[in-house]
């Protein structure tokens, strides 16, 4: 292979490095060549040459299970998927008019949304660097559209700031930057930092503070037309005789600090929260649906797995049909188990004590999503909010506005609540009717038209979903250190996959990268057997 | 020499970085989340805490419910709850799908809610004390790697 003296192509060079140094070396090389730094994804797994007749049993038809089945099927394996629910997709899920949701405790909601309207109860946005998910959308023909993330014109509300009156995101961010830069400039001008920085850097930093914070000639943050060019106007620029803008008035530092706007400045700077974001047209569930078009014939629905065993010849999953009570045993050479750890911890499974401990050390957090169908897009027409999120420190945490169908007439669906933590437990513990009532009560603080405009609502409390009993796995640094590798390792003929076996918890990218890693290792194991 | 210089250098550099542990994965807090910190606070009384938190899964009647596995365990009439250490540890550290509450609740709150569950839904009237919680909690509350308790 080294006989060719011409310079190798980038691809063959990477392949060569991969063979010589393993995947980690190849990954390093890719990073140094400007690829892959923003994603571990380097293309779909290239599995081929499965032994004739070799079989894999996949448990769970969410993103990890569907992706595993699809790639293993392409590689030549005989695949079967068992799914507990009567639907496919797992947390990749879109609720539309006519769909039903039944919770632990038996409460059943029927979605009353108009045609075309939907709620994504689980994942709802795809960051640009989630290249695995974007790849499969491309490969499977799932059409994507922009998901509006940061909207400077949306609201920030805190009961303890501005007398509880919601403020525009733009105004608070500009005011925060302005006040902080004024204080910094003051400290610099007083020589308070002369011991810390050089004279040259001090001059540059002063210029930066003046420009970043829009300070006046006295290095103070005060109301002016220049500041209004960022935070907005009392009268916006226009044409004709009344065209001149009138500046808005800046808020005082104490009020701005009360709003804790820095939480949201930081939020939008997070790697996973940055633009560009996408969503599938018609709902996130389109991705699961697209996989099902490829592997749907392999899936057995309504199938509750009751015991998982293995020996040196193969794997077995005992099951009970949740509808008919019929029982059976599915067998295969190998298994990809994507059952959430919250459920798997309750199913007897024949794996090492270390893996058993890892499965049982993985609590699931709680979240809620509440969809509210409104008669019209009043948030667009009256508030000029087109997509993005308004935040509140009430239990609902946010209101998110639809990223599609702008300016259209007729009913549209808001995300009326999306809490984690205590807010999620509080809303989950209510009846579905009470959750809607709370979402309307709390949302009315931001939009007074809420109750007049409200048509239909639906909520999904993740800790009351019988098939997962939580939202997603919650690791700590201690449990990562003690259990992560034990959870990810191949145990005999069984490998686990899902967001819980990833460092991208709660994201589909975690489920997808985990599945690719799992089937790649399983394939190697199968060929070596 | 059959290998051009450039790729050999890259190969070497890659191997050095790999063996030096240059890519040791760090704990990340990358999960999806709402992005704001709610001002809601846990209650102090046992009954209110149960209604705020526990009944999200264990249901208002503490009878739990059916799931894909064995389901959400009932707390009502649950003999395990006779053992204070057992119930404190479950609440503080979590177990299986049960979340850990050591980061959300104080020892006082854990004492209050476990006392309520043991006495109201079971016949174990002796209260759980803060000292008993502290003994099980033993050290700092668990720090969740993701930012999901906000």
Description:
- The complex is a heterodimer of chains A (529) and B (150).
- Chain A has 17 helices and 24 strands.
- With 529 residues, chain A is α+β, with helices and mostly antiparallel strands.
- In chain A, the strands form eight sheets. Chain A has a five-stranded parallel β-sheet with strand order 14-2-1-18-24, with helices on one face. A four-stranded mixed β-sheet of chain A has the order 10-9-20-21. In chain A, strands 7-13-8 form a three-stranded antiparallel β-sheet.
- Residues 1-6 of chain A have low confidence and may be disordered.
- With 150 residues, chain B is an all-alpha fold.
- Chain B has a domain at 38-137: Cytochrome c-like domain (Cytochrome Bc1 Complex, Chain D, domain 2, Orthogonal Bundle).
- Chain B is built from five helices and no strands.
- Chain B has helices at 5-19, 46-58, 84-93, 107-120, 130-137.
- The radius of gyration of chain B is 23 Å and the shape is globular.
- Chains A and B meet through α1, α8, α10, β20 and α13 of A and α1 and α2 of B.
- Chain A: It catalyses: L-tryptophan + O2 = indole-3-acetamide + CO2 + H2O.
- Chain A: Pathway: Plant hormone metabolism; auxin biosynthesis.
- Chain A: Belongs to the tryptophan 2-monooxygenase family.
Describe the structure in brief:
Chain B: Keywords: Heme, Iron, Metal-binding, Signal. By secondary structure, chain A is α+β, with helices and mostly antiparallel strands. Chain A has three domains: 54-88 and 286-362 and 474-528, FAD/NAD(P)-binding domain (3-Layer(bba) Sandwich), CATH 3.50.50; 95-153 and 276-283 and 365-464, Polyamine Oxidase, Chain A, domain 2 (Alpha-Beta Complex), CATH 3.90.660.10; 166-259, de novo design (two linked rop proteins) (Up-down Bundle).
Task: Label this structure with key terms.
heterodimer, A: 529 residues, alpha+beta, FAD/NAD(P)-binding domain, Polyamine Oxidase, Chain A, domain 2, de novo design (two linked rop proteins), 3 domains, 5-stranded parallel beta sheet, 4-stranded mixed beta sheet, 24 strands, globular, disordered N terminus, B: 150 residues, mainly alpha, Cytochrome Bc1 Complex, Chain D, domain 2, 5 helices, disordered C terminus, EC 1.13.12.3 (chain A), FAD/NAD-bd_sf (chain A), tryptophan 2-monooxygenase activity (chain A), auxin biosynthesis (chain A)
